Amino acid sequence: MPRGDGKLSHDLLPGEKGPQDACGVFGVWAPGEEVAKLSYFGLYALQHRGQESAGIAVSNGSQILVFKDMGLVSQVFDETSLGSLRGHIAVGHARYSTTGASVWENAQPTFRATAHGSIALGHNGNLVNTAQLAELVAAQAAAGNGRATQVAATNDTDLVTALLAGQTDDDGRPLTVEEAAPRVLPKVRGAFSMVFMDENTLYAARDPQGIRPLVLGRLERGWVVASETSALDIVGASVIREIEPGELVAIDENGLRTQRFAEAKPRGCVFEYVYLARPDTDIAGRNVYLSRVEMGRKLAAEAPADADLVIATPESGTPAAIGYAEASGIPYGSGLVKNSYVGRTFIQPSQTIRQLGIRLKLNPLREVIRGKRLVVVDDSIVRGNTQRALVRMLREAGAAEVHVRISSPPIKWPCFFGIDFATRAELIANGLSTEEIGTSLGADSLAYISTDGMIEATTIPKDQLCRACFDGEYPMELPEPELLGKHLLEAEASADADGVGTLASGVGAADALKRP
Ligand code: SF4
After folding, report:
1. Any idea of the CA torsion for 40, 98, 131, 142, to the nearest 10 degrees?
2. Is 334 known to sit in a ligand binding site?
3. Is 47:119 a contact under the CB 8 Å cutoff?
4. Is-contact 448 300, C-beta < 8 A?
5. Cα(425)–Cα(433) distance, rounded to whole angstroms?
6. How far is the CA of 314 from the centre of ligand 1 (A)?
7. Closest approach atom of ligand 1 to CA 272
8. What is the 3-state secondary structure (H, E, C) of 44-101?
9. In the chain, at which end, N or C, are there fewer CB atoms within 10 A of the end residue's CB?
10. Which is it for strands 24-29 and 238-242: parallel, antiparallel or unpaired?
């Protein structure tokens, strides 16, 4: 679906969890500009990437202030809060939690005091060596390095912030953030597109695989970094280039400095092209919308259907449905109307309303559907509950036949790099054949695009893409399953509280977080 509209991140039954995005980041260095407002609008364009909490940190050259809270960007900030965030550097974040619970303490940017001032950091992605990083932080704290915080964050990101804040050289001299980053970043494994800052400098860093996107843009009077090019567009910045995999960029009054902290081994997430990124975003030089249309074309060639009308599951399936219709010659039409204002709400639907299910989000256009043999195009199937309800709804609305076509292959493996699909056991494609899934959905037929067809549609070489959720080939070694998991640090912190185990929960001691 076109994202950035403040809606839930997938076409779900209320209460159902589909693929969830893993954060949007935005950073700006622009003296003379309203950097907090630029960050607000940048995050607004990235809202689809994380809808649980939002935050902006601003530096005026001598002090960093952080404002963050649970909720959508538009719920967290107003004119007053933005007006109080004055300065020339800002870092913003919209969160979906992957490691660490969805609580205020884990909202970002994370903040730590350093020997030289302070650091604020926002992270898109998910780390796979969290346990190892926690040990490094604990060792750092045991050596008396690193200022502490009373804010008990339990996310992977705070560990990196703590490491950046507490590094020393061999003689024990505290390092600046710029000195610490090339030492710390090579120790971090997993997916990370990070923006961070001290009082005077904006930094951007991307993991060696470049799994999540991160782009650099130029304002008339400054620089911007953001998760997606669409966020540069909204603030009037021109796209300069991507932050390269394994690259660290620093921006201040002396201009832009770049260095490599690791060799680039590009393995960008193919699911960004399928579903995650906005269609008006370009990643690695390829436009996302065009990739999705091409996926639809290839799907039509690979899995034709005898039908009267192609419709999309709005709006995530729309570009692929357009491509399917173009290639098949079957007319494209709107068969479903989406309620654009069903978004993340703090009002829980009652049981009666919940039973309305998919109708809270989608309503069929009966006059269009009645008597037709339909091809319904969607981007992916996770558990299948939404598609099952959709097929039933279309039949009730008079569809003669329902042929489901999916513009990504079956999702069979979990993602450890920032997308929370479901557990492996919950994935409908894990254990069922395509025919069995089609029967389970109640469809007349079901077909997925091939993995090669999806990859070709992106125009990115296969060996430069992560497609592990489809084929199980992870782009890096993973630790044992017990060392992965969303609540790893909460579990360890609670072990600490019981007096067992060691951990980062006791790293220091000053309440560094400031809320205006
Ligand atoms: S496992 Fe799937 S969703 Fe996760 S990074 Fe790889 S391609 Fe993207």
Report:
1. 30
2. no
3. no
4. no
5. 14
6. 23
7. 8
8. HHCHHHCCCEEEEEEECCCCEEEEEEECCHHHHCCHHHHHHCCCCEEEEEEECCCCCC
9. C
10. unpaired
Displacement of CA 475 from its chain's centroid (Å) = 18
All domains of the chain in start order, with CATH = 24-267+500-513 (3.60.20.10), 287-339+349-459 (3.40.50.2020)
Phi/psi at 495 (nearest 5 deg)? -65, -40
Q: How is residue 135 written in tokens?
A: 């040990």
Which comes out higher in pLDDT, residue 260 or 5? 260
Find the catalytic residue in 23, 232, 283, 295. Answer: 23
With 80 as the cut, is the pLDDT of residue 8 above it? no
Nearest residue (by CA) to ligand 1, atom 4, is 415
Task: Give the pLDDT mean for 269-288.
Answer: 97
469 annotated to a ligand binding site: yes
E strands, 336-487, in order: 336-338, 362-364, 373-378, 401-406, 445-448, 465-466
Q: Which residues line ligand 1 (CB under 6 A)?
A: 211, 269-271, 415, 417, 419, 466-469
**Which residue is it, tokens 């195009």?**
377
Q: pLDDT digit string (tens) for 9-35?
A: 333 343 344 555 579 999 999 999 999
Tens of pLDDT, residue by residue over 229-240, are: 999 999 999 999
Identify whether 411 is a catalytic site residue: no
Choosing from 9, 10, 206, 211 the residue with most ligand 1 atoms within 8 A of its CB, the one to mutate for a pocket test is 211
pLDDT-derived band at 354 (thresholds 50, 70, 90) equals low
Q: How many A from CA of 339 to the centre of ligand 1?
A: 29
Tell me what pLDDT residue 471 has: 95
For the chain, give the number of residues.
Answer: 516
Paired with 201 in beta bridges are none
Q: Is the peptide bond before 33 cis (omega within 30 degrees of 0)?
A: no
Cβ–Cβ < 8 Å for 269, 417 = yes
User: Is 466 among the annotated ligand-binding positions?
Assistant: yes
Please indicate if the annotation marks 379 as binding a ligand.
yes
Contact 57, 65 (CB under 8 A): yes
229: its two tokens: 């090019």
